[in-house]
Specification:
This protein is an alpha+beta fold. The chain has a domain at about 35-105: Ribosomal protein L7/L12, C-terminal domain/Adaptor protein ClpS (Ribosomal Protein L30, Chain: A), CATH 3.30.1390.10. Helices cover about 40% and strands about 20% of the residues. It is built from three helices and five strands. The strands form two sheets. It has a three-stranded antiparallel beta sheet. Strands 1-2 form a two-stranded antiparallel ribbon. The two termini are about 40 Å apart.
């Protein structure tokens, strides 16, 4: 109700015009292969941090192992950063050099 006046007020309340709101950019979270991190640990990370099923986690882990890297998921920037930090925290705690990065989609 653009320009509607209320009897008890001299102020007009204006409705915002419809604006084109674009969805936030997405970022992929990528796990990188190394020669020290165990496959079991990578599956555990995928299940705990990225909420993957055992089947999905195993499939992603095999891609990481065979291709050198694999996508764990796509998220907004803040969520992607949080996921990367959680992976690095788990890896440090277990003394694995697992590398996890984000890339803009």
């Amino acid at each position: 109700m653009a320009g509607t006046e209320y009897p008890d007020s001299n102020e007009q309340i204006k409705e915002r015009q419809d604006q084109d709101v674009k969805p936030p950019d997405l970022y992929r979270v990528v796990l990188h292969n190394d020669h020290y991190t165990t496959m079991e640990f990578v599956v555990e990370v995928l299940m705990k941090v990225f909420r993957k099923s055992i089947m999905e986690a195993t499939e992603i882990m095999l891609k990481v192992h065979q291709r050198g890297a694999g996508q764990a998921g796509q998220y907004t920037f803040d969520i992607a950063q949080t996921k990367v930090a959680a992976v690095h925290r788990m890896a440090r705690k277990r003394e694995f050099p697992l590398k996890c990065t984000i890339e803009k989609v």
